[in-house]
Amino acid sequence: MQHYVLFWLKPQLNQEEIATFANFFESLKRIPYLKSLHYGLAANTPVRTVTDNSFTYALTITFASIEDHNTYQEDPVHLEAVEKFSKYWYRVVVHDSLIS
């Protein structure tokens, strides 16, 4: 199971605050049942009609199962991180998919 999340951070944040937001992702790494976790800033790739680089950060988490994903949604570490860092974003979009 792939959990892909896009974050649009508030435009008034300075570069230090944007960098500090990465601690959100780092705190999630403590959750033991994540198979993998990767995150990064939007890439400055060429403009194309199919490309959307309007987000600030992207997060990709791989889970072994939908059950692990569902447990993650209620995990205290996840909920604490959302509570602590949600002040930084104004929009979040989630794409979940089954992968092989």
From TrEMBL:
Pfam families xref list: Dabb
Top-rank taxon, per record: Bacteria
Regions crossing the membrane: none
Name of the protein in question: Dabb family protein
Domain Stress-response A/B barrel: 1-97
Subunit structure comment from the entry: Homodimer.
Organism expressing this protein natively: Pedobacter punctiformis
